[in-house]
Amino acid sequence: MFKRICRCTKPDSLLKALLYPWDRATSEAIVYGRQHEADAVAAYVKLLQARDSSVAVQETGLRVHCQYPFLAASPDIIVVVDGKEGLLEVKCPFSKKGMTCEDACSDRNFCCRLTEKGAELKRDHAYFYQVQGQMAVTGYNWCDFVIWTEGNAPGDPPHLHVERIEFCEKF
């Protein structure tokens, strides 16, 4: 929603979307994402622990901006990595089951693109706006953006991509 608000040219349609949201909670993709969010968080924690990092995660609900109470966000997780607090935003794309994030980047509509460093969240994608908005509301300076997909076959390990997104005050 942060991207729609930032790029709004028709306030009437935005207001309608805010007041009368379409209920997507039962779509197959949303159900899949919710079913696997805990798997993604567990894989993220396991990955960081394998790198000898101390990790703690805490679920959170709606967070309201202390100075601008008309702004709010619902981050997936508050995370503490080696004593530093940040956010964790998890995506489990139903349409990319069995693909690595890098392979999924071949789809031009995917949220990430390939760079020399690997997959990177597109800076003009709604998820980038979401993450920046969450950090602005909560006051955290970074968010680990995680993409989790199932392995290619039953029993195969899942694919996990983690990108640390820094807060951009100018954004």
From TrEMBL:
SUPFAM superfamilies: Restriction endonuclease-like (SSF52980). GO terms for biological process: DNA repair. It holds the Pfam family YqaJ. InterPro entries: NF-kappa-B_Signaling_Reg, PDDEXK-like_dom_sf, Restrct_endonuc-II-like, YqaJ_viral_recombinase. Residues 25-141 form the YqaJ viral recombinase domain. It comes from the Eukaryota. This is YqaJ viral recombinase domain-containing protein. The lineage of its organism: Eukaryota, Metazoa, Ecdysozoa, Arthropoda, Chelicerata.
